[in-house]
Amino acid sequence: MLTRMRFFLTQINIKAFAKKLVIPFSFITPILMLFVLDPNSFNYTWKGRTLYLFFLWLLFLELILDWEKLTQKNLASLKKSRIVVMGIMASIPIVYVIGVNFLGLDQMLIEIGKQILTFWHFSLDNLRYWPLSLEYLVFTIFFAATIWLAYEVEGLKQFSISLCLLGAIGIIYMIDTFYPYGAFTPFQAFVPFTASSAAQVLNWMGYKTFFLPYQVQGTPVLYVSGSSGSVGFGIGWPCAGVQSLFIYTCVILLFLKKSTIPLIQKIIYFIIGAIGTYIVNILRIVSIYIIAINQGDWQAFHDYYGELYSMTWIIAYLVIIILSRAIPAKLSVLKIKLKKQTMPSVDRS
Fold first, then answer.
1. Phi, psi for residue 220 in degrees, rounded to 5
2. How far apart (Å, rounded) are the C-alpha atoms in residues 64 and 101?
3. Which among 159, 172, 164 has a CA at the least distance from the CA of 48?
4. What Å distances lie between residue 215 and 189, 208, 219, 234, 235, CA to CA?
5. Are the beta carbons of 314 and 277 closer than 8 angstroms?
């Protein structure tokens, strides 16, 4: 038994083994630590850490899809010095989490953020979200560095979608930190159409709506009243579908990148899905108002469950695309088989 074990161990390529496991395990560790230290932060899809789980899902999906391609790329050429540097890059997010939670790094970051925002005359209203925004960007940078050291430029291409998602969320959070209450006008341009569309749907459902553009610190306000009461909320660009469209774009690009669908059809699928994602986000806003009017916990729905609308739609849309292409192909094959079976046999005697 021991002899067999020694033989097995001697056959393992340590470099190949490290390259296979360093990506998933080095990324899981800091996220798992954050979950243990602050599980409540994973209850929020907006200004929370729920999207880390979505990032890991995309990462493993990309890893599975490109497993053979990545593990067959010149494994024996990985130098020891490169492995050491790769280990350092992979461990920095872990050190960062420890520093923020145990060594007072969070207070240092708050002071740095305060100085930056003050120097550039930005609002301090969202200063509390500065460390979280920076955390997403730090993870993105060092995860990307780890992937590059393990798989070089080809690896960055293979994991481009998951890294894009992580970096995009960090950028979105950082923009909202610097420009709170819809002050970032390029994204805020989505709001009037989204809010008016939600108001129209609520009108169809029998509610009365009143839309006031740019009433509260540049944020449009939609008032809705019904038999159970009335509510009014300011609507910023994060609620107008920007975040959902970012997530949709990352997922659909991964799916289309790995498919053999013709380019024109890919463009059509992308546009239809984007429109669907935007409509689903309008329905999410409608749901928030209905829950609030009926004295439900609209805040919990807004911060967590509402975003599941978009994720459910995205997954369902991918399933629809797969089935719409797979079923006709199978029916075509079945038709050919039936045709062959019904054809009269030819007597060659």
1. -60, 150
2. 33
3. 172
4. 15, 19, 6, 8, 10
5. yes
Phi, psi (degrees; rounded to nearest 5) at 67: -55, -55
- Please name the amino acid found at residue 51: L
Cα 244 from Cα 187, distance rounded (Å): 13
Among residues 113, 102, 104, 107, which one has the least CA distance to residue 137?
Answer: 113
pTM: 0.79
- What are the 10-residue block averages of pLDDT along the chain, 349 residues in total? 44 51 80 94 86 87 73 60 85 93 89 84 79 93 90 83 87 86 75 88 92 68 87 83 83 82 91 93 92 87 80 87 77 66 56
Here the tokens at position 214 are 């740019």
